[in-house]
Amino acid sequence: QKEVEQDPGPLSVPEGAIVSLNCTYSNSAFQYFMWYRQYSRKGPELLMYTYSSGNKEDGRFTAQVDKSSKYISLFIRDSQPSDSATYLCAMLTGGGNKLTFGTGTQLKVEL
Amino acid sequence: NAGVMQNPRHLVRRRGQEARLRCSPMKGHSHVYWYRQLPEEGLKFMVYLQKENIIDESGMPKERFSAEFPKEGPSILRIQQVVRGDSAAYFCASSPEGRETQYFGPGTRLLVL
After folding, report:
1. What count of other Cβ atoms lies within 10 Å of the Cβ of residue B78?
2. CA of B97: which chain A residue's CA is closest?
3. CB B88, CB B110: distance < 8 Å
4. Over the stretch A48-72, which tens digit does the pLDDT of each residue have?
C-alpha cells in the first residue's frame, strides 16, 4: 500500500464549477500538508501549505485536513481553464525533510 | 527574486555516459532537495543537502548516483554510467532554514538513448 493515495483522474469539469481534489494517507506521523500545481513539462508550484488539521483559504483555493480520517482535500471555486493542470498532494512528518507525494490528479477545465 | 534555477533543462546521453545536473537554490535558501519523477509516477525523494553536507540520502540509488552542494556554486546531481531506466525528470527544490515549504525548479529532463 502506498503511503499517499491520490485518484489520478483525469477529471474534467466545466468552467465555473467547484472542483474537489483529495488524498488519503496511511502514515499518522505526517503533520505538514501541501498542494502543488504542475503544468505539463513544468516544475511543481506550491499552492497551499497547512499544518495539522483544519482549513486554510487563499483566494479561490481552500485546503482541508482531517487527521482523524487521514484525508486531505483541495477545493477550487469558480474554476478557470487556466486551472487545467496536474495537482499533487504532498506530506511531511514533523521534523522531516522529504516530501512524500501522491501521484497527482489531472484536471481539465473546459470552456 | 529569482526562483530555483536548474540547468540544463534537457539532457540527452547515451548509455554509459555521465550526466551532471545543476541546481541553484532561491536566494536566501540554504537547503536543497532532489526528486525524480518517472513517467506515470509521482515525485520521489532522492537526497537532501545543506552547504557542504549530505543530510539525508535515503532515496538515492546505492550505485552510480551522487550529489553535492559545495560552499560555492550550485548543487550537482551526478549520474555515472547512465542506463535507459535513468530517463526521467529530475527536480530540485529549496527551502529556507527552519521552514517546511519547498519550492521547486523547472526540472531537467534526462533522456538516455
Report:
1. 13
2. A97
3. yes
4. 999 888 899 999 999 999 999 999 9
> pLDDT tens, B52-74?
999 999 999 999 999 999 999 99
Residues A92-109 pLDDT 10s: 998 888 999 999 999 999
Cβ of B106 within 8 Å of Cβ of A102? The answer is no
Task: Give B45's contacts in chain A (Cβ within 8 Å).
Answer: 98-100
**Are the beta carbons of B33 and A46 separated by less than 8 Å?**
no
- Partners of A44 on chain B (C-beta within 8 Å) are 43, 91, 104
Q: Which residue has the cell 551532471?
A: B20
Query: DSSP label at B72?
Result: S
How far, CA to CA in Å, does A29 sit from each of A32, A57, B7, B87? 9, 24, 35, 32
Mark yes or no for CB contact A88/B43 under 8 Å.
Answer: yes
**Among all chains, which residue has been given the C-alpha cell 546505492?**
B62
List Cα–Cα distances, B83 to B2, B22, B100, B113, in angstroms.
33, 19, 33, 8
Using CB atoms, pick whichever of B40, B48, B91 lies closest to residue A97: B48
